[in-house]
Write a structure and sequence with these properties.
single chain, alpha/beta, Rossmann fold, Arc Repressor Mutant, subunit A, two-stranded antiparallel ribbon, 8 helices, 7 strands, transcription
Amino acid sequence: MTSIENPDLGPDRSLLLVDDDEPFLRRLEKAMARRGFEVETAGTVAGGRAIATARPPAYAVVDLRLEDGNGLDVVEVLREKRSDARVVVLTGYGAIATAVAAVKHGATDYLSKPADADDIINALLANGGDLPPPPENPMSADRVRWEHIQRVYELCDRNVSETARRLNMHRRTLQRILAKRSPR
């Protein structure tokens, strides 16, 4: 595995990745290690908080919603232990309210999944006022809608009637959407 040297990282290349999506976490861990980071991973809020307390990293990428709680709890611990840490909050459930909450808790940036390693590095290394470049392949509006419907469907324990009620959608319309493949 070849490593891509990144001179913008500085002397402390420690990176904490916190996500409960194991395949995504492993792929991101390998990609970030190849780009010169010294990566530690955690799959839970408790694990992320423990690492942030014991060995506060210079950089962190934290999923917002984890099985055992909210990733913002990890961000708070990071801010207490290391105020100069650059933290990017990732989530599959992007919304303005959660983005504002993430920034208020000390996140440097906020990205919606799916985000690739280059998007994450751009966000981690962006200078204060600089905005990272827009993503190369952003999700289409149809895909964002589909992702939102899938999220609500899962949160309603795959109950079509309850999901339709919460989305203010006719049940049969929702059934047709769920029967189709995801848009690109």
